[in-house]
Automatic annotation (TrEMBL):
Name the UniProt record assigns to this protein: Ribose 1,5-bisphosphate isomerase
Keyword Isomerase: yes
UniProt GO molecular function: ribose 1,5-bisphosphate isomerase activity; S-methyl-5-thioribose-1-phosphate isomerase activity
InterPro entries: IF-2B-related, IF_2B-like_C, Initiation_fac_2B_a/b/d, M1Pi_N, NagB/RpiA_transferase-like, R15Pi
Source species: Natronomonas salsuginis
PANTHER family per the UniProt record, alphabetical: METHYLTHIORIBOSE-1-PHOSPHATE ISOMERASE, RIBOSE 1,5-BISPHOSPHATE ISOMERASE
GO BP: any one term: L-methionine salvage from methylthioadenosine
Highest taxon of the lineage: Archaea
Alphabetically ordered keywords of this record: Carbohydrate metabolism, Isomerase
Family under the similarity heading: Belongs to the eIF-2B alpha/beta/delta subunits family. R15P isomerase subfamily.
Amino acid sequence: MSTPPEPHPNVRETAHRIAEMDVRGAAAIADAAAAALGVQAAESDADSSEAFQAALHAAARELHDTRPTAVSLPNALRYVLSGLDGGDGDVEALRRTVERRVARFQAGLDAAQDRLGGIGAGRFTDGDVVMTHCHSTDAIACIEHAVDSGVELEAVVKETRPRNQGHITARQLRELGVPVTLIVDNAAHRFMNDVDHLLVGADSIAADGSVINKIGTAGLAVSARDRGVPIIVAAQSIKLDPRTLTGAAVTIEERDPEEVIDAGTRAEIGEIGVANPAFDVTPPRHVDAIVTEHGQFPPESVVVLMRELFGNGISEPWESV
């Protein structure tokens, strides 16, 4: 087997930034990955369509392996690569195809989030208090559209350890003029009686309607269900995982233990194991609605949308690399 081509340095840099969470959020990850493939295509010196595609597939593999749970990443790669038609056309024609696919994908991301925000805003009425978890640009879009339409909201924002992504949410909601109360993660159940909605994003949604999101979401959903608080998941269709249509399991990413405890403190405590899963799975029975750019769906109906968008199966062009 021949050695795969070396990806462009921009691809390597983008992959590093995604892995280190300098680029975070499903839409941002998808956008960065698509852009990196665009750079790979634009600056490729391949002299045949086969070599051009081999380099693109190697770049896609490098990007794909950074965040195993964020399904927006393979969905973005798949979208860009699906227009290459298995080697037809000369290098310049393929280069232009990639350029068009990247531009179309990036424009679609912005439009999809705007449509989703308008749909999700309809869930809220004047005076509602919304609890959030982690940081989701799709969730923020729902609140932003509601505020822009004149609805007054307040937010209870979980800080979301160990990386405190809730601080980003708190800052962005304050910029929208939303009063914010920041709470530690362990206080969520205590504040659940004070909120009208639990609004979260998703990193992946399975065919059965299960929601894979930042660790802590599943327990939070149980608490919300116990208190009768509706649970809304805001997620563009790039969060739907077509691999689960054929029964594939979702991989839960395990992050560096030093996000939880530094090496010095760990040494002081003594011999302990440290687990740092980045995500958990919320079963569909705990979710009231999944809001996408295509409309609102009860979780058990998401499979219909998934089949409409992806068919009944997919192939991964980079897997042969």
